[in-house]
Design goal:
Layout (H helix, E strand, L loop, with lengths): L6 E4 L9 H16 L3 E4 L11 H13 L23 H13 L3 E4 L3 H13 L15 H9 L5 E4 L5 E6 L3 E6 H4 L3 E3 L7 H11 L4 E5 L3 H13 L6 E5 L19 H6 L1
Parallel strand pairs: 1-2, 8-9
Antiparallel strand pairs: 3-4, 4-7, 5-6
Helix pairs in contact: 7-8
The chain binds glutamic acid.
């Protein structure tokens, strides 16, 4: 049951040590939850087995604790909306993938990395925005079967319609993206692992997140996520995209600027 207390989340991918920018995102979420008597949830986005590690996850939790950004639900704490590791939620993503397949909102795509690279380069050489042009969108059943017989494994792509995708951002106001510019995106890769955009929508919905507060580098992801909310019949949360921490040269704070992780500052 949805109460009127906000539920916000911090959803890091443990692929490195906690970045100052992410710590700031966590702080905004934590403050918002505390101010309104709501809940601050920690969710570990660890579906990418090759890039995530337990060590970074442990460091991350240690750094959050050091900053006194304690979570109400999440790893170590538990809670009624768990599990809080995406790697333990794969059955939930398959369930919703099944729904999107039967509603014909997605289709199997057999393109190889090489084919996709080639398409990207062709579009770039024509000075067009690289995006998937829908090669596998209208394959017949026979064509699909024959590709599978050749050993090709399918990823699943979402059929993006044309026309604007609009949402209101609590910080930036009305936002508008064009469907044409997005292209059919992958929601589940051929190895069965869900994409970030798909997993996040399923999780934010099931965890009853009321406000998504994150960096403005996620604005175009939010457009993609809106399409998923609509097609899954989920009510989207409110969105607030905050500015990013920049270096002296006004570009996004990165290692080039010096220390960027909470850990480095802590050690100093
Ligand atoms: N795992 C994503 C990241 O670290 C989460 C983004 C989000 O808040 O949706 O960028």
């Amino acid at each position: 049951m949805m109460s009127n207390k906000p539920r916000v989340r911090f959803a890091p991918s443990p692929t490195g040590n906690l970045h100052m920018g992410n710590a700031r995102t966590a702080l905004f979420n934590w403050l918002f939850a505390k101010h309104y008597g709501g809940s601050f949830i920690l969710r570990i986005e660890d579906t990418d087995q090759e890039r995530t590690s337990r060590k970074f996850e442990n460091n991350l939790m240690e750094d959050l604790k050091w900053l006194h950004l304690d979570w109400d639900e999440g790893p170590e704490k538990g809670g009624e909306f768990g599990p809080y590791h995406q790697s333990e939620r794969l059955d939930l993503y398959s369930k919703y993938l099944g729904k999107l397949i039967s509603d014909e909102r997605v289709y199997p795509c057999y393109c190889t990395e090489e084919e996709l690279d080639e398409e990207r380069l062709t579009l770039l050489s024509m000075r067009m925005m690289p995006r998937y042009m829908g090669k596998c969108r209208n394959l017949t059943d026979n064509e699909r079967k024959s590709l599978e017989r050749k050993g090709r494994r399918a990823a699943f792509r979402f059929k993006v319609g044309s026309g604007p995708i609009e949402f209101d951002d609590l910080i930036r106001g009305p936002m508008k993206f064009e469907g044409e510019a997005i292209g059919d995106f992958i929601i589940v890769r051929s190895n069965g692992i869900p994409s970030y955009n798909f997993a996040v929508v399923v999780d934010d919905h099931l965890m009853e997140i009321t406000h998504v507060i994150r960096g403005e580098d996620h604005l175009s992801n939010t457009a993609i996520q809106m399409l998923l909310y609509r097609s899954l019949d989920f009510v989207p949360p409110s969105f607030a995209h905050h500015s990013l921490i920049l270096g002296k040269d006004r570009t996004k704070l990165s290692k080039r600027h010096g220390s960027v992780s909470v850990r480095e500052f802590r050690e100093k």
